[in-house]
Structure formats: C-alpha cells, structure tokens
Amino acid sequence: MRQTRPVLITAATALLALTACGNFDLDMRSATNGFSTADAARQPSADRPKADARGIITYPDYQVVVARGGDTVQTVAERLGLNPVELARHNALTPDTTLRGGEVLALPRKVDAGEDIAVTTLAESAITRAENGDDAPEPAARADGPQPTQHRVERGETAFQIARLYSVSPRALADWNGLNPEMEVREGQVLMIPVAAQLERAQEEEPVTPPGSGSPTPPPPSASTPMPEPEPPAEVADRQAEESRPPSPQLEQERTEPATTTNFAMPVDGRIIRAYAPGRNDGIGIAASAGTNVRAAQAGTVAAVTKTTTGVNILVLSHADNLLTVYANIDTLAVEKGARVTRGQSIAKVAAGDPSFLHFEVRNGQDSVDPMRYLQ
C-alpha cells in the first residue's frame, strides 16, 4: 500500500503536466502529428444518391445495393439474380449474415436491368408509395455526379482512420455505407468514400477594379457620327405604325386540335376512393368487393407479373403508344407473362381487404399519368 500511493501520484502528475502542454490531444489528432480532422471539417460531403426500387445505386464502373430491414446476403442475392456465395465473399460476409436496413453491399459485377425488370421496378415503387402514403420522389436508377472511390478495409483499420485518410467526416462515411452506431468496419469490407458537395455560386463574380484606378472611362462620342434624325410628327408616326402593324388573325378560322387519348375501359365498376396524386399515389383506388373480376382496360400484352415486398400482387399490361396499365390488390390471376389479352378480358380478381379495392395506374413510358384522362 505504501508503494502504490507514490506511483499514483507520479501518474497523475505526469498527466497534468502533459495536459498543460498546448500540443497535447487526448484523441491523438493534433495539427502536428498527421491526424488532423480540420480538412474533413472544411470539405462538406454530398448526400448519398437515391437507390432504385431494388436498392441498387449505379455508377459508371460499379454498383452497390442498399439492404432492406430483415435482409440477409442470401435474400439480396436472390432479389438481384446473383450467386449468394459470390456476393458474400466479395463483402467478407457469409450468405446467412443478417443485414441492417440501410447497410450497403458492393456488387461483384453489374446487374443488368432489362426491360421487364424496369417495368416491374416502376410498378413496385409506385405501389409501395401508395401503401405507405409517403411522398418520396421517384428513386434514381443511376447516380449523378462524380463516382466515389472504393476502399477495401485492411486489418486493423478503423472508420475514423479511413475518414481521416480521405479527408471526409466519419459521419458522412457512416451515412454513405450504412455503418452501425459504433462505426464498426470489418477486414475486407468495401466502403464508398463520400464525394464533396457541389457548392453553387450565388452569383457570377464581377470584375474587380484595382484600388485607385477608378471606373473605366467610356470613349467620347465621335464628331464624325451624324446627329440622329428628328422625330416625325405625331400623325406621321401613327400612320407608319398602322402600316407596319401585321394583319389581325382570323380567329374564327383557328381551331384547337383535340387531345389524342386512348379510351380505356374501367377495369372494375365502382367509385373512386383514392384519387390520383403524383408522387404520393401514382394511380387511383376503385372500390370493389373481394372476388370481383378485374378486366383489361385495353388490348395488350402481359409485361410483368410480380409481388411487392409486402406480398401485394402486381400485374402490368403493355399497350400501343408506349402506354402501360398497372393492376394491384389482386389475386387469382388468370393470365401469365407474355400472354395477349383483349379489352375487357378478365385478368384477375379483386383481393380481400378493409376496404377491398383495385389499385389502377396508367403510365406513359416511365411517367405516371392521371388514369381519368384515359377512362371512359
């Protein structure tokens, strides 16, 4: 006991002495030891780009996927059509690893989004917004801006060290990669390094005149320049204006061309209980009893038959003039992908619900339009 006290006093004295020194930093990040975070504080990072409906963010040279709550590496691989073992090995994980919602995985190779997948993705995204009642914008399929650097974590590295290495904030590094609150990284993990925010100038820079030089002096008027013609009298000016005035258009001969729209049949008979609201509800909800036949609004081809992540059935028909119709909250599907259907043909039944209704959309290419413009 007698020997312990002097040791403690000596340690405390040393700590106080070090603290008194102006250059001591308990976090070992002083301006002189190479670990300063000042650069990171001066370089704000942009927000991570939005993922598409499958969770994919696409860059020119690579892709990453943002996991959903409850995902495993296996379920992510199955959703994207990848080999689970290959995806797991590329991210230093195992196929049965449970992922956090928002966690980012690097894809070992690019996933091709064909036409069928694109149609299904659009439909799933719209139905999900309608179910949740949110007003999230359409997710971007391809990220804009510069491509982030990828960093594979080496043994012993921490998120803070990696952030300092690239002069980004640890918070931005965590947000871009979906790290947990403890900022844990693992050996072999592939991280995206946040890109700097693009700061817009409020206005163009004005040329600066050196002090003492004054404003540029305009050139004096030339003595050889003739004097301007005198203004004509008022009555002459009025006559000249009348002569130069173009003839009045014959309004009775002009006709507004009627809007060319394709008339669609109502897919079910019922009242509209959910109105079209772009960005929140990309279609309409038509009240109908469970088991009611759902009819094809127009002749076309079955482009996709799929389900949302919550198990809602979706059927997409492709029509002429680049139009699509989307039917959801259905069951007992009577057609398969690739089948030709006729206008009014029964394609499914309204699923049970409280209330039961059909979700119906019309899309012109990738853009949703108000179905009431097309329905008779």
TrEMBL record:
Positions with biased composition (Basic and acidic residues)? 236-245
The segment annotated Disordered runs over 128-153, 201-266
Give TM regions. Answer: none
Q: Where in the sequence is the signal peptide annotated?
A: 1-22
Residue stretches of biased makeup (Pro residues): 216-233
Which Gene3D superfamilies does the entry link to? Glucose Permease (Domain IIA), LysM domain
Question: What is the protein name given in its UniProt record?
Answer: M23 family peptidase with LysM binding domain
Species per Swiss-Prot/TrEMBL record: Roseibaca calidilacus
